Amino acid sequence: MHCKELLTRERHQINSRTCREMAVAEAVAVVLLGLAVCASAAAAAGEVTYDHRALVLNGTRRMLFSGEIHYPRSTPQMWPKLIAKAKKGGLDVIQTYVFWNVHEPVQGQYNFEGRYDLVKFIKEIHAQGLYVSLRIGPFIEAEWKYGGFPFWLHDVPNVTFRSDNKPFKKHMQRFVTDIVNMMKHEGLYYPQGGPIITSQIENEYQMIESAFGSSGQSYVRWAAAMAVNLQTGVPWTMCKQNDAPNPAINTCNGLICGETFVGPNTPNKPALWTENWTSRYLVYGNDTKLRSPEDIAFAVALFIARKNGSYVSYYMYHGGTNFGRFASSYVTTSYYDGAPLDEYGLIWQPTWGHLRELHAAVKQSSEPLLFGTYSNFSLDKKQEAHVFETESQCVAFLVNFDQHQMSKVVFRNISSQLAPKSISILSDCQRVVFETAKVNAQRGTRTAEQIQSFSDINTWNAFNEPIPQDVCKAMYTGNHLLEHLSTTKDETDYLWYIVRYVYTPSDDDQLVLLNVESRAHILHAFVNNEYLGSVHGSHDERGNIILNTHISLKEGPNTISLLSVMVGSPDTGAHMERRIFGIRKVSIQQGQQPKHLLNDEPWGYQVGLFGERNHIYTQEGSYSVEWKTINNLTYHPLIWYKTTFPTPAGNDAVTLNLTGMGKGEVWINGESIGRYWVSLKAPSRNPSQSLYHIPRQFLKPQENVLVLFEEMGGNPQQITVNTVSITRVCGNVNELSAPSLKSQEKEPTVDLWCQEGKYISTIEFASYGNPVGDCTSFGFGNCHAGSSESVVKQACLGKTECSIPVTPSKFGCDPCPGIQKSLLVVASCR
Question: Does 396 map to a domain?
Fold first, then answer.
């Protein structure tokens, strides 16, 4: 961590290495500081304000497209390419939350290293010429554990989260102030010459405000005033907060803000959309729900047309990976994989390309959109027009809300056909430059290639996680059941509950029934070190999970060991500090006798796993236990597995395929790549997630140490190392399509390109005419130019990208005059 990245000397634990660097560089730093002050003053001429139409940067209204990228969900080595692809996709702004619990995991001790280097991330965005929207919160939700709050906040005396509560406001104000001061110190606000043009305080508070009554209203006023008084020189926003106090701007989050947003709460504020959900986050037990590029584009265009929107941010633009234990309750390790940039940072087509064309179409009409007069009128029952016009320029949005029928409309004496649920953007109010329902962007197919198998049982070693048996040797003891998170401090998913039960057999050998009720997510039960069974809950059916099963007991003392497991902590809702998890009731019943309630018996508690406490997933920690071969071993719950593998050649993304496993966590060279849970099947009968991302930055050239903790008894011999890449690309463009906005060509083109490091190796299919099917299933129609394949091969083979005009002249002749033709090309990349 560089000295200039420290918040304040009083609030940082500066390590000895940093102190030595500070001493050596002190004289140089004084000179550089003086130069930085001068440079900052010289660059401080710009300012960010707003009016009823848009954010105003240095006196100019701006039409801005933004995308959410979270720095902790990727690696510093990934940041430059993610930002570059976002810029190439037509974005102006990168938006990110600030993650309090990664920056201050221990009260008063800050961490801004590695994936948490916020300043480095912002400076990389700035270096590539983009702006930043900084969502400080500090409550963020974001499917991130505890909503971004550090768990120590839970233990602050008399604290009530997100309310007019002195202890909470004290810590919230301190953290927000520290972040703002850090940004100022680094000169990162726009008036200082930096990239930050907006900041956000709180997050979707209106959803829970009523739970706090008048305290909620006063808290909103306090939060806004506190933020504004920090004098950042840029506007503050409050998303989903219709009562956002001036001068904070209320903004929209959601799928269809063009329909649901009530609008700015004062006439001088612009319409901003801070979260346009590009997909839906995935939870274990559910199938992926992707959002089509046509639907996203329709929503964006409608927001601009209906609400005079001038800022749209995609949530997420790159989702990334929930490394370690940072995913919230039941949320998968993969986060928003269907965003324009997928989990691995690959361009997700055609979403990325379709939105790119939309951005270009909108920006070429920025002047009438930002400065023109606005009018709207009905074209028919489900069709409407929105027009923005200056003396010299005009742009129109023709909207068809009918989801099933084409619509013929007349606009300014010109007849147009509108596709079902579509918006056509007309430059100069005459020429169609973009149609939300017509996707001309290339499509891509992502595939996973197996690189290495671990089927050889001799490559694995195993260590059985000990089952705690002695109440007296436990970390904590007490005559009541402890709450899970209050005990673990959310530093582990696991909490053992151990109790001793003395069994006296009855004459009729009656069955013994064990009943356990828990508010955790998973429960594993053991009696006298023998596995009894497991139960689990789900994201959609939260509440008690109940284990009710017959058990065998020996006469005299017996030990019942119950492992309570959380799959992430909560991230939303009022009064999170009051949430209760873990085992709430335990009873034993012999035959028809009354239940024997064990809640008030002497209980022992063990926080975390033995393997966790000894860090056996690291190189050094692995020597602290005796690993054994697993020949002829019957796979059972609570077992650690270890092996090694070399790094796959090339630059393709690397994953683990864990289809044969149950549930647990994975480490590569001591770095956690997250939880897995492949045994919980989705309605499709497939795992919600089977591939788990290993960033190449976590890998060494050889002897990468792979360690898994398996809760439910999976088979490690089925694990494989895969690489993921885009192996097939496809373009399908009609000859009457709008011209390519990126190149301003006069004619439509099929544009193909392979991901970095690959080239077009094969043309699988090419037809200019009326080919049938689409990019996954295709064939020749009754009109086909015989030269199609040769023309496309000549233009594309061996190249990283190519462009083929969709015109008869390119193919030597018109194969079928009088009919509308298209060009369909399917190619392979390697």
Answer: yes
**Domain encompassing residue 153:** 44-363
Match 């270009």 to its residue by tokens: 360
Report how far residue 558's alpha carbon sits from residue 529's, in angstroms, rounded to the nearest whole number: 10
What is the C-alpha to C-alpha distance for residues 719 and 657, in angstroms, rounded to an integer?
Answer: 6
Residue 515 lies in a domain: yes
**Residue 456 within any structural domain of the chain:** yes
Interhelix angle 118-127/79-88, rounded to 10 degrees, is: 40
What CATH number is given to the structural domain containing 582?
Answer: 2.60.120.260
The H or E element containing residue 448 is strand 443-453
Tokens describing residue 410: 């007349």
Query: CA separation (Å) from 447 to 286, 450, 681?
Result: 21, 10, 21
630 with 572, same domain: the answer is no
Same domain, 318 and 199: yes
- Indicate which residue of 204, 465, 665, 711 is catalytic: 204
How confident is the model over 172-194, as pLDDT tens digits?
A: 999 999 999 999 999 999 999 99
**How far is it, in rounded angstroms, from Cα 224 to Cα 201?**
7
Is there a single domain that holds both residue 287 and residue 373? no
Number of domains in the chain: 5
Tens-place pLDDT, residues 543-573? 899 999 999 999 999 999 999 999 999 999 9
CA distances from 584 to 245, 249, 485 (A): 43, 44, 13
204 as an active site residue: the answer is yes
Closest CA to 450 of 234, 608, 657, 265: 657
Could you tell me where the beta strands, DSSP code E, fall in 116-248?
A: 131-137, 196-201, 236-239
Residue 711 lies in a domain: yes
Is-catalytic flag, 275? yes
Choosing from 124, 202, 209, 275, the catalytic residue is 275
Q: Is the bond preceding 247 in cis, omega lying within 30 degrees of 0?
A: yes
